[in-house]
Amino acid sequence: MTQMLNFKDVELYYDHVYALKGVSIELNEGETVALIGANGAGKSSILRAITGLRPIHAGEIHYMGDRLDGMSAAEIVRKGIAMVPEGRRVFPYMSVKDNLLMGAFTRTDKADIQRTLESVLERFPRLKERYGQQAGTLSGGEQQMMVIGRALMAKPRLLLLDEPSLGIAPKLVQDIARAIVAISRDEGVSVLLVEQNSRMALSISNRAYAMSTGSVALSGNSKDLMGDDRIKAAYLGGDL
Amino acid sequence: MEQIIANGLYLGAQYALIALGLTLIFSLMNVLNFAHGQMYVLGGFVTYTIVAQFGLPFIVGLFASAIVLAVVGALIEKFLFAPVIRKSKREESTMLLAAGIAFFLDAVILLVFGEKQRGVPKIVNGVLNWDFRIIMPYDRILIGVLAIAMIAGFILFMQYTKAGRAMRALAQDRMAAELMGVDVKRYSMIGFALGAMLAGLVGGLLVTITGINLGMGGPTSIKAFMMIMIGGAGVISGAIAGGFILGMMESIGLTVLAAYGDITYLVIFASLMVFLAIRPQGLMGKPWG
Amino acid sequence: MSPILQVKGVTKRFGGLTANNDISFDVAEGEILSVIGPNGAGKSTLFKLIASFLKTTSGEVLFRGQRISNLAPHKVARMGVVRTFQETTIFRSMTVRENIIVAHHLRSKASLLGFFLGTSQARADEAEFGASADDIIDFLGMSAIRDELASNLPQGHLRALGMAIGLATNPTVLLLDEPFAGMNHDETMRMVSLVRRLRDERGVTVLLVEHDMPAVMKISDRIVVINFGEKIAEGTPAEIQSNEKVIEAYLGSEDAAIGM
Amino acid sequence: MKAKLLGLGAFLITVFVIVPWLIAISGRWDFYYTLTSVALLSIASAGVWLTFYIGRINIGQGAYALAGGYVSAILITKAGFSFWATLPLAGLFCAGLSVLIGLPILRLRGVYFAMVTLVLTEVGRLSALALPVTNGAKGITSIPLPGEVSVFGLTLIPDFATLENPKLAFYLVAVLLMVICYAALYRIVNSRLGHLCRSLQQNEELSASIGVNTAYLRVLAYSISSFFGGIAGAMFVAISQSIYPSSFQVADSVNFMLNCFLGGLGYVFGPMLGTLMLYFGWDLLFTTGRFQLLIYSSLLILLMLFLPNGVLSLFERKGVRK
Amino acid sequence: ENPVLKIGFVGVTSGPAAAWGISNQRSMETRAAWLNELGGYEIDGQKYDIQIVAFDDQKDPKRAIAGMEKMAQEGIHYVVGPNVDDGAAAVRPVAEQNGIMYFPYAFPKELYTAPASNAVLGMVANYQSGPAIYKHLMENEGVQKVAFVAANESDPLSQRDGGVEAAKALGLEVVSDSVTYQVDTTDFTPVLLPVIQTQPDLLVLSGVSPANAPQLIRSARELGYEGLISTETAQDATVLQEGAGELANGFISVGGASTPELASDAMREFVDRYTKMFGEYNDESNTKVYALEYILETIKANPAAMTDVEAFKTTMDTFEAPNPYMVGDAKLTYVGTSSFGQKRQVSVPLVVNVFKDGAFETLFVAQVD
Ligand SMILES: Nc1ncnc2c1ncn2[C@@H]1O[C@H](COP(=O)(O)OP(=O)(O)OP(=O)(O)O)[C@@H](O)[C@H]1O
Ligand SMILES: Nc1ncnc2c1ncn2[C@@H]1O[C@H](COP(=O)(O)OP(=O)(O)OP(=O)(O)O)[C@@H](O)[C@H]1O
Ligand SMILES: [Mg+2]
Ligand SMILES: [Mg+2]
């Protein structure tokens, strides 16, 4: 397995709050890696650092032989990294179609874009039904599917997902989880998944990192972690 | 009656074009560009200089206005608005910057082009007189048609091109747009340049009819504010609607209220305030106004 | 015992869309009642109607037998019915403590003029709010972020702060809209026990909307299920969990492959 | 606390003692009027700042200054009031007017409110032109100077017409008003009222949910703001002894707003400093002749570029906490 | 080195109304430079260099007061300006307290009527020129019906009211006097439509600014109006030519002394020097050359007036000097007795012009008393 992403000793702070205090994570091609951890542990910050939304203050980020830190978000997207941000962030006054097309913004081959569009619509048939509707009027679950679809429109090699289950009804969370599995399986896309629903995250990932206040507390094989007592206590709970 | 509508349409077309630029800039950067009127005046003076001073054809002057203003707009965005927006805590602060730029352009225009009213010769002669029901000089008709064509062109650009889509996305969610690979800095600059260019184009168009003078900047900005307020700030269709509505209101108001003279504008303004009190987001405004 | 809150045939239409259709249920004093349902079912709308942030199209909401629907929202809050927001809604450029202190507004005995003049009553109020805010901070375990600017907080803390703001108003009925969203299991369970304590120690009646089923099942005395704006079920957690209609519309059946 | 009291003392001594003394020894008598203007305009700006504080961009203060001016002028010339009586009445009239106007328009937010108030300034001017009581386009002129105020024969305020140096008298009155207004503003901001205003500025819905009567608070703040505008306008009428529909116009409203930005929206004394810099700056640049506006606007732009959060943000502390 | 005599100017030289003050200030500066070039202006055997101290009041009465204070500070006793009614009224207290004579271009009668005594009207007021023009047109063109339009601002509205009164007094029928427009109007067709429909013989553009005049004329003509158009303010020929072209032919306005029939060599030299100094002449300056001339000549006539405006006032009653800008034996004197009850107006020829193919021709010349 070849290494795809190497996130090394990264430090990052906001105005005056330290969010990442020397975090290292790795991700191999084709893998699904989960990031779990308490509120404010820095999970979203890792994703922001990877996509260049936030500058890092120390450390390095390598992706397929390129160094990402210092690049602009636009450049990083062009390298094949797509992100579904926290809180969905749809373009509320654009149609579903235009939202999806925005996902393919960096691509130029029209016919190829059309093919991707069709495959996305096939994967999320609900979007096909709402094709011309303004995205802001979609329900929460539909919006979540749409932004995942939008990210897929970039034909990414690495997909970053920030809490896709947030505020979504259980049944839809299941649909989304299945979609993630399918995307990784069918298209060979690597996935970095931030989730609060740790049980779900560990079930559908190969490896996982558990974060606590700005650093990695535990990492390893998802199956092993699922059985780990510390994880059980902190993230899974015995009593479901 | 026909005359009133014709006047309203002509006014509306030019107003809508002014409001479009303002609303574009507002939607992209959340900046209320107080200097919009001054940009319009600058556009007028550029066309004047090219046509009246250098004796070149009108169309050259119009293009020159567009280009000069696009460049000015781009520079202003890159070196002034972008850094200030990045650094300031409250986005309203850009209003001071915009006002400073308005003063600055006023000063430059005064020093470069002087204090006098300027105009260029009519580009088309003759007056359409339809049985005294509609009297409309041909040059006005031409300018009105050109303005409408530009509005249509602008809408098509925003709706169907990649750059247009990128700008719309940018206006709705900056961060998400960035994640789609949109170079937000570049497109903000392009958007601002486009907005400024529209202002310059109107200036260039109207210099053939109303002429231009340095005093027109401030009032033009205020009128443009009113239009985007009627239609809904940051919404393209709203700006167009607002422009035409204000045009019609003026045309009708001036005729109907002529007998009461001094209060025409008082009535227009007051009804605007009442309208907004009832419909706080304007006609087509989005909640984020 | 008569119910503290009665929702009576409440209907809300937005243009052509019926977000709530003839919904009725009662809430007993000291009860924890959850409202669940698919996204867009109309749960948040219902909360807004109860707290009178929206006007009902028809129907009414009674608090202790008194009509509260369609009053000004601050009046409803004054009567003790307080809502938190689904979006993490806080005062962004105040610190956590300031947020909570401001939220004590309803408890002030001095008038605004009194505060302006700095009367002794006003100073006493201020001192009391400060102390009470610290209390709430400790109660919710937020002392580490006491003086943090609210805009710097991550999702999870924002939720906690939202709840703290709700608490500060000293509510009789507290409406919590997705209070556990964005929290992991551990944190969720802590919040669950907090809500319990709130009810047990302070006698607050709690209504909540939540998609986190384990938490809902654990915390609720009763559950109301809404789908497409209509109430489709009402009952104890056990009843709801086995209700076919609810499973079909909302819960989905268990799937080991994805851990749910 | 001690530092604050010291600062206050130093400020009072400066404006009431040192400034007149410096003017006396330098012979720059023209500064009296400049500083009087600064004091009065900063009162109006303080009002605008207060509306900023509840999250509203107010470009309509000129309308209230104009209304205040007219109330004073009309009461003096048509009803024979003493100027000193008209001063609070002008403020109260504007406060009352602003309640009527504010009730509907304060529901607007963001640029919508800003633009409506901009239009309001224009409505003010047009009304003054159209109304009979304001004497329309001809304005009201030849208004007598403020007269004497005495209680039981004891002269509290002398008749300004008999004064040797009315400039100094106007200056002292204006500065005194300014001190009172800013003291009130400071108290508002630092009392619960201010916290509530701030909550309104940041999130009105949430504010309502914690039981704040947002509509009332908005109107209250707006009427205090307009009160400030009204008395500033009335004072100007006393100085110029005349008023026209164009005495306060859109440019003034915009300037009031700019004063707030320049000083800093986050600081109570921001508008005062902003007014001083903007107004005095223009005056000082008067020697640059035809480049005055160019230099003035360039300085404005530079200031904004380097201190976008206002001049007072210069004194803020910064640092990274681990 | 000559001692310096400072003369002030307080007016608007930036923003929308910049044109008014700039033409004013520039004509003063042209004349001052000219005099200084000749070795200075001689008063009581002493040559003085004339220095113009200008203050931009931005058309804000509050600023105008500050400007007047500045003038007082500079020890100046003679000031030209302000350009508008509100400014002129606002500076009155300052001028009176500091012993300053000022020459506003504003028409309110209170400024010039006792007890006011420090203001001197620097031009012909519309209530003086208007009747003369209407009378002339009544007698020579058979005008019977008049319509008025004005901008919705203090000065133009006051001028309109004055005009209407004068027209009625002359027995003319006023068919429309309530239509007003905003100064920022870009299309005057809707404004003029109802006016034209009243079919006047004469359309008076009261207090029209040079910027609006060509557009109004153009709109009126394009709407098919064939009657006469006039105004009582000074206009600029180039602006009219550029803005309305031949449609402006026949437009009647008030001019100064540069019309060929009247202009002396000195006037022509003045125009030359102005053009050289500032690149382009502004015909509005015609009406504005006089104030400075009057101030200097009056001081020359009574050197005590240099620092004492009371001496100036006394001299005004009897003052007389040759008018350098006009051919013939025209005189500089103070007038105004019939309008204000005291001599508080400069006597300038009331020159009424007609625009023809890019230049003004003199229609008639009258005098104001
Ligand atoms: N824009 C910001 N400004 C200042 N501080 C921030 C900002 N965003 C995040 N932080 C701080 O950085 C830290 C990490 O935040 P981050 O959003 O990465 O957490 P997270 O693990 O994603 O939490 P959650 O699960 O609650 O979303 C937190 O302490 C937070 O307070
Ligand atoms: N102000 C409004 N105008 C128009 N439609 C609205 C408005 N508010 C809500 N709706 C619509 O009403 C329906 C119910 O929305 P509501 O927010 O109550 O759903 P919800 O049950 O809280 O969903 P979620 O679980 O996703 O938060 C949705 O279809 C929504 O789009
Ligand atoms: Mg996060
Ligand atoms: Mg909801």
TrEMBL record, chain A:
SMART domains: AAA
A GO molecular-function descriptor: ATP binding
Span of domain ABC transporter: 5-238
InterPro entries reported in the protein's UniProt record: AAA+_ATPase, ABC_transporter-like_ATP-bd, ABC_transporter-like_CS, BCAA_Transport_ATP-bd_LivF, P-loop_NTPase
Record-linked CDD domains: ABC_TM1139_LivF_branched
Record keywords, A-Z: Amino-acid transport, ATP-binding, Nucleotide-binding, Transport
Signal peptide interval: none
PROSITE patterns according to UniProt: ABC_TRANSPORTER_1, ABC_TRANSPORTER_2
Gene3D superfamilies, per database record: P-loop containing nucleotide triphosphate hydrolases (3.40.50.300)
Source organism, top-level taxon: Bacteria
Family: Belongs to the ABC transporter superfamily.
Annotated protein name in UniProt: ABC transporter ATP-binding protein
TrEMBL record, chain B:
Spans through the membrane: 12-32, 94-114, 134-158, 189-212, 224-247, 254-278
UniProt-listed InterPro entries: ABC_transp_permease, BCAA_transport_permease
Predominant cellular place of this UniProt entry's protein: membrane
Highest taxon, organism lineage: Bacteria
Compartments where located: Cell membrane
Membrane topology: Multi-pass membrane protein
Keywords on record: Amino-acid transport, Cell membrane, Membrane, Transmembrane, Transmembrane helix, Transport
Homology family: Belongs to the binding-protein-dependent transport system permease family. LivHM subfamily.
Full protein name: Branched-chain amino acid ABC transporter permease
Species the sequence originates in: Albidovulum litorale
Organism lineage: Bacteria, Pseudomonadati, Pseudomonadota, Alphaproteobacteria, Rhodobacterales
UniProtKB/TrEMBL annotation, chain C:
Lineage: Bacteria, Pseudomonadati, Pseudomonadota, Alphaproteobacteria, Rhodobacterales
Organism for this UniProt entry: Albidovulum litorale
InterPro entries assigned to the protein according to its UniProt record, in alphabetical order: AAA+_ATPase, ABC_AA/LPS_Transport, ABC_transporter-like_ATP-bd, BCA_ABC_TP_C, P-loop_NTPase
Keyword set, alphabetical order: ATP-binding, Nucleotide-binding, Transport
Domain named ABC transporter: residues: 5-253
Alphabetical list of SMART domains matching this protein: AAA (SM00382)
Protein name from the UniProt record: ABC transporter ATP-binding protein
SUPFAM superfamilies: P-loop containing nucleoside triphosphate hydrolases (SSF52540)
Coiled coil: none
GO molecular function: ATP binding
Record's signal peptide: none
Pfam families, alphabetized: ABC_tran (PF00005), BCA_ABC_TP_C (PF12399)
From TrEMBL, chain D:
Transmembrane segments: 5-25, 31-55, 62-81, 87-106, 111-131, 168-189, 219-244, 256-282, 294-315
Protein's name according to its UniProt entry: Branched-chain amino acid ABC transporter permease
UniProt main location, coarse: membrane
One Pfam family recorded for the sequence: BPD_transp_2
Record keywords, A-Z: Cell membrane, Membrane, Transmembrane, Transmembrane helix
Membrane topology: Multi-pass membrane protein
CDD domains found in the cross-reference section: TM_PBP1_LivM_like (cd06581)
Annotated localization: Cell membrane
Organism field: Albidovulum litorale
InterPro entries (UniProt xref): ABC_transp_permease (IPR001851), LivM-like (IPR043428)
